[in-house]
Design goal:
The chain is 55% helix and 12% strand. With 447 residues, the chain is of the alpha+beta class. It folds into two domains: 285 residues, no CATH class; 134 residues, no CATH class. A five-stranded antiparallel beta sheet has the order 5-6-7-9-8, with helices on both faces. Strands 1-3-2 form a three-stranded mixed beta sheet. A hairpin with a 4-residue loop joins strand 2 and strand 3. Helix 3 packs across helix 7 and helix 7 crosses helix 9. The longest helix is centred in the middle third of the chain and has 35 residues. The N terminus is likely disordered.
Length: 447
């Protein structure tokens, strides 16, 4: 990849972002593709480059491949089928529809949008290559891939050969998994691959010492809309590039962060972790996975760090009885610190400094009335913070953002007790006290 500030980097961004589900899949058939004389010329050129790039990556990463990495070509149709298989496991359609109503009630998805459809459309348009851990193969869609793209996917292959990505990801997948822990894994895996890719590029350009770390910090610290403005300036009127920027700008904030934070925030976290303990520090986290995005946004809190801080697991009770006849639990999720930041940016149009600071755990539930498939759900949201001042700061920030929120959150009551914050919205007035009392009395907290 050419300089990270130039056009090649941003073309790579628009073509190659994908969820970490693209790290996991099937079991060893690309050897046949390697012999296919009809395969694209770009795949043949890339295969010729792999031995040299594998050796280069081994030197850069300080680790060795156990076997050569298989490479295959792919089509958009094959990619779409692959993504649908993956999304069937990660975002089953019926579950996604329920989850989407919860996210809409918070303001993290626009009204009427479906999480699965948004993710599938974004990934289909963006992927240039993906690594399939079950098959031990990476597949290439880009016709003329830069060496940096190959390095990135080879790094996923190296992760897989050393740590077994499919086994690592299995507990983090599906509707019952903790979404914040899953996102934390993506920050680690994609963050390392993006860091290695950027370091490879910096070495190719003989960049001065410290430039890589400054660039990664700038990537992580630049707000979404400012990054889009910078991209438009760099596009210099290129119609294809501008069209890609426009498409990215239309992504809901939640989907945008799911696709981009693993690269930008993830690489910044990897850079900070390397400063703490070199590659051994990264290796440890693949053996003892981070349990929350907080642990990578604040690397001292990650396992093995000087301020290791496991999250508090929050389990609200089913409050259907307190809500009254006809109500039932619709969906539940954990936002985590990263998506607390996303929430404020979605509601206010720009990041709020310190948003989510001191987060230690949360769970949000949505409830729906029988037969009311299109109405707003009711919300119950319990959060735990490190200190009372953190809880008070979050509650104050949320109250200030409420006028721009959808009705369930806009009208919610936000109460603070010590390090706990309870948010109850969209609940019939005569039921609010019963819902609040049951939530506080029966919530279960633990590591």
């Amino acid at each position: 990849m050419a300089g990270a500030e130039g056009g090649c980097y941003h073309r790579r961004v628009r073509r190659a972002r994908r969820l970490a589900a693209a790290l996991v899949s099937l079991a060893a058939a690309a050897a046949a593709l390697a012999q296919d004389a009809a395969e694209p010329a770009g795949v043949r050129r890339a295969r010729d480059e792999l031995p040299r790039l594998q050796r280069r990556l081994e030197d850069l990463r300080g680790a060795r491949f156990r076997r050569d990495v298989a490479l295959g070509g792919g089509t958009v149709e094959e990619l779409r089928a692959y993504l649908r298989r993956e999304l069937d496991e990660d975002l089953p359609p019926a579950w996604s529809a329920r989850q989407s109503r919860l996210l809409q009630a918070l303001g993290l998805l626009p009204r009427g949008h479906d999480l699965r459809r948004e993710v599938e459309a974004a990934l289909t348009a963006a992927v240039a290559a993906y690594y399939d851990a079950r098959q031990g193969t990476f597949f290439l869609l880009a016709p003329d891939p830069p060496a940096s793209l190959l390095i990135h996917e080879l790094q996923h292959a190296l992760q897989d050969q050393r740590f077994g990505l499919a086994a690592l990801v299995a507990p983090l997948r599906g509707p019952d998994a903790d979404p914040d822990a899953g996102l934390a894994f993506r920050l680690l895996a994609e963050g390392e691959a993006f860091y290695v890719e950027q370091r490879f590029t910096a070495e190719e350009r003989a960049a001065p010492p410290g430039e890589l770390e400054r660039r990664l910090a700038a990537f992580a610290g630049t707000p979404r809309r400012e990054r889009e403005r910078q991209d438009r300036a760099r596009a210099q009127g290129d119609p294809a590039w501008l069209a890609a920027i426009d498409a990215r700008a239309r992504l809901p904030d939640l989907v945008y962060q799911e696709l981009h934070a693993p690269y930008f925030q993830g690489a910044a976290a990897v850079s900070a972790l390397l400063a703490q303990g070199g590659w051994a520090r990264i290796d440890r986290l693949f053996r003892e996975l981070p349990a929350s995005t907080e642990q990578l946004l604040h690397p001292d809190k990650a396992p093995g760090g000087p301020a290791h801080d496991p999250p508090t697991r929050v389990a609200l009770p089913d409050l259907s009885a307190e809500l009254g006849p006809g109500w039932s639990l619709l969906a539940t999720t954990t936002l985590g610190e990263l998506h607390l930041r996303t929430l404020f940016e979605a509601l206010e149009g720009q990041p709020r400094p310190g948003a989510g600071g001191g987060w230690d755990g949360d769970q949000v539930q949505a409830y729906a009335r029988a037969g009311d498939d299109d109405g707003w759900p009711a919300l119950a949201w319990f959060l735990v913070f490190d200190a009372p001042l953190d809880a008070q700061a979050f509650a104050r920030a949320l109250r200030e953002a409420q006028p721009r929120a959808p009705p369930p959150l806009a009208t919610a009551e936000v109460t603070v007790r010590g390090v706990h914050v309870l948010v109850v919205g969209g609940v019939p007035a005569e039921r609010r006290e019963a819902v609040r009392a049951a939530a506080r009395a029966r919530v279960r907290l633990g590591e």
